[in-house]
């Protein structure tokens, strides 16, 4: 099924008794969080007085960065283990916070696609491994800033209770709540394991793997999951 067909499916489904629901992950699916990492590394380079790293970051694209921080540092020529450890500690204290989500940029086509689905009658469920205590405020602000539908009827932000919860355990439990919102017609995630989870939970829905950055050593995709590079649908 094409992305445009998902929009049409939502239009058709609104005439039924059960509202159509579309599920979206955030990091790597609706948002490129590379600019968040880039800014944190800039702050680290400046705080540590590392002018070599700061100069290398200026030459590095802010979007499309690798999933692992060490791979981003390697692109900057920063291969020293102590530097990598210090940078990771600095990054970890900031990446999973409200403040730095303001640097995220939407994946190509994401804003228009989500709004088209919403206007077609879909309920939009933002189902993310971000945790509510540290990231809910920044998450809602980023969605609003970039003009995604949020904070209004037919939208829901569903985040982890705690940072320590694993994403797979959280989403395995959260799908039960998402199912109460209506009939899930499509899901989108950048992690193959999550795509497979959704395919097993909602076999009649269309499932999409957004092929951006993802965790190393992913499982093979379920046969029913389609792969897309971004969310442009026209």
Essential attributes:
single chain, alpha/beta, six-stranded parallel sheet, two-stranded antiparallel ribbon, 8 strands
Summarize the structure in words:
- It is built from 9 helices and 8 strands.
- The strands form 2 sheets. A 6-stranded parallel sheet has the order 5-4-1-6-7-8, sandwiched between helices. The protein has a two-stranded antiparallel sheet with strand order 2-3.
- The model has no long low-confidence stretch (mean pLDDT 96).
- 44% of the residues lie in helices and 17% in strands.
- It is an alpha/beta fold.
Overall helicity: 40-55%
How many helical stretches? Answer: 9
β-strand percent reads 15-25%
How many DSSP E strands?
8
Distance from first to last alpha carbon: 14 Å
The main sheet comes to: 6 strands, parallel
What string gives the helices and strands in order?
A: HEEHHHHEHEHEHEHEE
If strands are numbered along the chain, what order do they take across the biggest sheet?
A: 5-4-1-6-7-8
Q: What is the CA-atom radius of gyration, in angstroms? A: 18 Å
Mean pLDDT: 96
Which structural class should the secondary elements be placed in?
alpha/beta
**Gross geometry:** elongated
Question: Can you summarize this structure?
Answer:
The protein is an alpha/beta fold and 234 residues long. The chain has nine helices and eight strands. The protein has helices spanning 3-13, 34-48, 51-58, 69-75, 81-95, 110-119, 132-145, 167-179, 192-201; strands spanning 20-24, 31-32, 105-106, 123-131, 155-160, 183-189, 206-210, 225-228.
